[in-house]
Design brief:
The complex is a heterodimer of chains A (266) and B (295).
Chain A (H helix, E strand, L loop, with lengths): L5 H24 L16 H8 L1 H34 L6 H13 L2 H14 L6 H25 L4 H8 L4 H30 L2 H6 L7 H9 L5 H36 L1
Helix pairs in contact in A: 1-11, 2-11, 3-6, 3-8, 3-10, 4-6, 6-8, 7-8
Chain B lengths: L1 H27 L2 E2 L6 E2 L7 H10 L4 H8 L1 H34 L5 H13 L2 H12 L4 H8 L13 H26 L2 H9 L4 H12 L1 H16 L3 H5 L8 H10 L4 H33 L1
Antiparallel strand pairs in B: 1-2
Helix pairs in contact in B: 1-14, 3-14, 4-8, 4-11, 5-8, 6-8, 8-11, 9-10, 11-14, 13-14
Classes of the chains: A mainly alpha (266), B mainly alpha (295).
Chain lengths: 266, 295
């Protein structure tokens, strides 16, 4: 017996207002003429223009996208392998340690992960830059990927793979034509998760970045420390817009895929 | 083939997760020094076993004693625990009614409501924290609003206080609380509530006697998912908190970047981990119990 009471309506309205009003204010005031962020002085898109001419932000954005792309790709490959190991490999020497190392980074405070990786890079005297941020991001996001992929693999009908072997597939063929298409949605969402985690990360990137490899969050953080600025509002609006479009497109495509699969099985 | 499959992620994690960890532990036992890198002793393997023995003999617990001596550190640990615990409580207070409302909403609304809860989670964390600076500052929107409705006569200071940190944590971690609670409430068998009401319970009594106990696993999971990351939080206290807001993540950051005292920063990290081990183990037990109950 589920009833939508007025209490439910009120709590949902207030809850979503709490979640969305801060972002709405940010978006509205990014179109504010005035430099004072809290006083409305008329509509303008000049801050977007200034943002697009700000070399430092554009460079940082490019570094961030590069880091995100490479780290999430590495993380997806490693994380999918790790998911196979967790779900399929049964017992092997050091399994407990392995699964511990997969789950620990999920709960590890970022300051500790960042500190430990920085100390590693220093003791190996690796020059810090894009490369070290990619390594750091790939390491923590592979754990998220492996959790996403292994939960899909746990519900996977293994007889399909066995059928492929019986029909003469080699291991790689069976993986390519049977396993991969089945786990593909999980692998893709793993990649997306890894990509967003990387774009979003401030703390670990701050520890592992070099002087020439400022990412967008590092740049935003250092300018936000000085206070609110309309340029950052404009940048935030762009990011929020991109994420919203991305999430809506992803949810519609996955819904369509689900409907298609249901029709096929019927 | 199988060996290779195991070896690649295994070696990666050993090198980039476990070894760095050992290095933190090692440096936490070293001493601060005015050198590059700024700690001593340095392990010099060229002198062979003797070099190692000498290195080993110079490691000590001094930094840990220092942490217990200087009350800045234990105050920071205590205040992190307090801020994390209180924020978790506030998140529960805000999150439970939302999850409850979602579970009671008509079925065709629920995917959209889910999407609306998850969407902020995909949006940059930093931006969501930043949004509150403009709201909570002295000239900010909250003060403007409160002045306009005449509730206050002069702006109140919220930004750069602990209250701002509570608001920030509650806001950014809300999805982590709502989703697990919603998951348990959605599975809740409605006929149990009907039975309770048939047996003479009022709706409120039925809520306390049926809904609350059955949502416990979700509530516990949500609390841990908020509490654990909140404890080591750095961004929120440094952007919304004041200079007197003590949180251990911030202390660690400053110890490392401003004071350049790597050994003490490492010791701070090790103790933080030891504190975190307890809630993490409790969390895993809760998850395991739930999985067993599910089977």
């Amino acid at each position: 017996m589920r009833r939508m009471t007025s209490f439910n309506v009120v709590s949902l309205t207030l809850g979503f207002a709490f979640l969305y009003i801060p972002m709405l204010i940010l978006i509205i005031y990014s179109f504010n003429e005035s430099k004072l962020v809290t006083v409305w002085a008329g509509f303008s898109i000049k801050w977007y223009g200034e943002l697009l001419q700000n070399e430092a932000f554009l460079d940082a954005a490019w570094v961030t996208v590069k880091v995100g792309f490479f780290s999430s790709t590495i993380a997806t490959v490693l994380g999918t392998m790790a998911a196979f190991v967790l779900v399929r490999s049964g017992r092997f020497f050091g399994r407990t340690l392995f699964s511990g190392m997969i789950y620990a980074p999920l709960v590890m405070p970022e300051v500790i992960t960042g500190l430990s990786l920085l100390l590693l890079f220093i003791s190996l005297s690796v020059d810090r830059g894009v490369f070290t941020i990619v390594l750091a991001h790939a390491t923590f996001s592979m754990c998220y990927v492996s959790v996403v992929v292994s939960s899909r693999m746990a519900t996977f009908d293994q007889s399909l793979e066995e059928a492929a072997y019986d029909l003469g597939c080699t291991g790689w063929d069976a993986f390519k034509s049977v396993t991969l298409p089945i786990i593909a949605p999980a692998v893709i969402s793993g990649w997306l998760l890894a990509f967003t985690l990387s774009l979003d990360d401030l703390v670990i990137a701050s520890f592992t970045a070099g002087p020439s490899s400022t990412t967008l969050p590092i740049k935003i953080f250092s300018s936000v420390r000085l206070g609110v600025s309309p340029e950052i509002n404009a940048l935030s609006t762009i990011i929020i817009g991109l994420v919203t479009v991305g999430v809506i497109v992803a949810s519609i495509t996955s819904k369509r895929a689900l409907v298609r699969r249901q029709q096929e099985t019927v | 083939m199988r060996r290779l499959l195991i070896a690649i992620p295994y070696i990666w994690l050993l090198l980039l997760f476990l070894v760095p960890f050992g290095i933190v532990l090692k440096i936490s036992l070293s001493d601060y020094a005015l050198s590059i890198p700024p700690y001593t002793p340095q392990l010099d393997l060229s002198t062979g076993w003797q070099g190692f023995a000498e290195f080993w003999s110079q490691l000590d617990m001094e930094n840990y004693w220092f942490l217990t001596d200087d009350d800045l550190y234990w105050k920071a640990y205590l205040s992190s625990l307090q801020i994390a615990a209180l924020s978790t409580f506030f998140t529960l207070l805000v999150g439970f009614p939302i999850a409850y409302g979602m579970a009671n909403a008509p079925e065709h609304w629920r995917p959209t409501l889910m999407l609306l809860i998850i969407l902020p989670f995909w949006t940059s964390f930093l931006i969501r924290v930043y949004a509150w600076i403009g709201i909570l500052s002295n000239e900010g929107f909250l003060n403007q609003f409160l002045l306009a409705i005449g509730l206050i006569s002069a702006p109140i200071k919220i930004l750069n206080t602990d209250i701002a940190v509570y608001i920030g944590i509650t806001y950014t971690y809300l999805p982590f609380m709502v989703l697990p609670i919603y998951a348990t409430l959605e599975k809740l068998d409605g006929s149990l509530l009907e039975a309770a009401e048939d047996l003479g319970c009022t709706r409120l009594q039925a809520f306390w006697a049926v809904t609350v106990p059955l949502s416990k696993p979700g509530v516990i999971a949500g609390c841990f998912l908020v509490f654990i990351p909140a404890l080591g939080e750095f961004v929120i206290p440094s952007l919304l908190g004041g200079s007197d807001t003590l949180m251990i993540g911030k202390v660690l950051w400053e110890e490392f970047f401003s004071n350049r005292d790597w050994p003490v920063a490492s010791a701070v990290a090790i103790i933080l981990l030891l504190i975190l081990v307890i809630p993490i183990i409790l969390f895993q037990r809760n998850e395991q119990k739930q999985r067993e109950a599910g089977n």
